[in-house]
Write a structure and sequence with these properties.
This protein is of the alpha+beta class. It folds into 2 domains: 297 residues, no CATH class; 98 residues, Porin (Beta Barrel). It is 45% helix and 18% strand. The protein is built from 14 helices and 11 strands. The strands form 2 sheets. The chain has an 8-stranded antiparallel barrel with strand order 4-5-6-7-8-9-10-11. Helix 1 packs across helix 14, helix 4 runs antiparallel to helix 8 and helix 9 packs parallel to helix 12. The protein is elongated and about 85 Å long.
């Protein structure tokens, strides 16, 4: 994980920006969502009726009364711009097709990355970019487009199909059960009339009930962890607000499903209460138990994000510095080059901290040369920065930028062009930020 000290030393030179309020209702066309609706609907209704409602006790079913499942293409009103909107109102559980399609795409991307031993973080990086960046002129690309994953990859790789379906199905059933719980326990809506404490208690009760439904079905809620880690990179958090008072006001007045560290900690504790009970067959219980304990540890990690202002700001800083083109698992191929200041280099960045100490960070630099003009990018694990400069006497003098941060730098090459050393600085300086040591990949 990137050093928090490094994040703050960079943020020192810029004004921190809170999340953008992007309208994501155009990620998918209405025609595409209608086609997805027709495909999803039979399985969604079967899961709702057989797995969720069918797992209720007779007393619970009588107390719940009539309940229905609604599958609009998008959520109405401002919720239509939210790609992770699921809710219950009146006697209806609402599961917008846009939200299901969005999570379906993320599930496929996760499975593709897992199957090919690629970074899983790019999926949540994409979600953070949606949250913190302004959309391009033609709008944000849908997940599979941005991540460079073929929509029919599940046909080519059965492991991708299996894993993505397990993520999606277990998450959707868990979410349905959670929303049914709100109706069963007659939880009121959210707003100033409901205290933050009561709202969080309602969410915890619905979470426990959703877990109980998964226990009755005999399926570990693995996809639920994927859903919540997505939510951790999309939902508003303490780091998006200038003060704790403003954050608490948001929780009280606007949060429809309060998403807090305490809620995640309670959810993890409930998973650990009887982890073997998610497996119906006795011979599967030991393996199932270990799986559920791992899911609980993932939920603990999400609680850490929600409880740590430094991590929240690190995620925001990375999102603001990440280029959409850098998220693709299948980037455009560039011709290899052995010339000076051209090609891919890996090495380290010795970062100068403000207290006089240093830290060593991994670094990848990609350089493209046209005559004496060089452009490129660098990546130290917190989003890509850009480089542009000119060569003179085996020395590259360049300007760099990373998000809202910028500065100058110098790189020197050895005779073969396989090793680069140099320094960079903030703003008008070329020496006060640190040193680079690089070798050709």
């Amino acid at each position: 994980m990137i050093s928090r000290l490094f994040v703050y030393s960079l943020l020192f030179f810029t004004t921190f920006s809170i999340a953008q309020a992007s309208d994501l209702s155009t990620l998918y066309s209405s025609e595409h969502l209608q086609e997805r609706h027709d495909r999803y609907e039979p399985a969604l209704r079967a899961n709702f009726n057989r797995l969720v409602l069918g797992s209720l006790t007779r007393e619970e079913r009588a107390r719940l009364g009539h309940v229905q499942l609604e599958l609009p293409l998008r959520a109405p009103g401002k919720e239509g711009s939210n790609p992770l909107s699921f809710y219950a109102v009146g006697n209806t559980v609402v599961m917008p097709i846009q939200s299901i399609k969005f999570f379906d795409d993320l599930s496929l991307a996760w499975a593709y990355a897992w199957s090919n031993n690629l970074s899983l973080e790019k999926v949540t990086d994409y979600v953070s970019v949606l949250k913190y960046q302004k959309p391009p002129a033609d709008g944000f690309p849908a997940p599979l487009v941005a991540l460079g994953v073929a929509p029919d990859i599940w046909k080519q790789d059965k492991r991708v199909d299996d894993v993505s379906q397990k993520i999606l199905k277990s998450a959707i059933v868990w979410i349905m059960a959670h929303e049914v719980a709100h109706l069963l326990f007659q939880h009121p809506g959210y707003g100033p009339q409901v205290s933050v404490q009561q709202a969080q208690a309602n969410e915890a009760e619905a979470d426990r009930f959703a877990n109980e439904i998964m226990r009755r079905i005999g399926v570990a809620p693995g996809g639920m962890a994927n859903f919540f880690v997505t939510l951790a990179h999309w939902s508003s958090n303490r780091g998006d607000f200038a003060s704790d008072a403003k954050w608490q006001a948001f929780l009280k007045e606007e949060a429809t499903h309060p998403f807090t560290a305490a809620r995640m900690q309670a959810l993890a504790a409930d998973l650990r209460r009887d982890p073997g009970s998610f497996s119906i067959e006795a011979q599967d219980r030991q393996t199932g138990k270990q799986n559920v304990l791992y899911i609980a540890s993932q939920i603990d990690d999400i609680a850490t994000i929600l409880n740590d202002l430094d991590i929240q700001r690190s995620i925001a800083a990375k999102a603001q510095a990440t280029k959409l083109s850098a998220l693709s698992y299948t980037p455009k191929k560039t011709s290899a080059s052995n010339g000076l200041f051209s090609g891919t280099f890996n090495g380290s960045f010795e970062h100068f901290l403000r207290d006089g100490s240093t830290e060593l960070l991994g670094l990848t630099v990609n350089l493209n040369r046209r005559k004496n003009h060089v452009t490129g990018s660098f990546d130290f694990g917190l989003g890509q920065g850009s480089i542009e400069g000119f060569i003179s006497n085996k020395q590259l003098r360049f300007e760099w930028s990373w998000g809202a941060n910028f500065g100058q730098g110098i790189l020197n090459s050895n005779a073969t062009g396989n090793q680069l050393t140099g320094q960079l600085g903030y703003q008008a300086f070329d020496h006060n930020a640190g040193r680079w040591q690089l070798s050709r990949d």
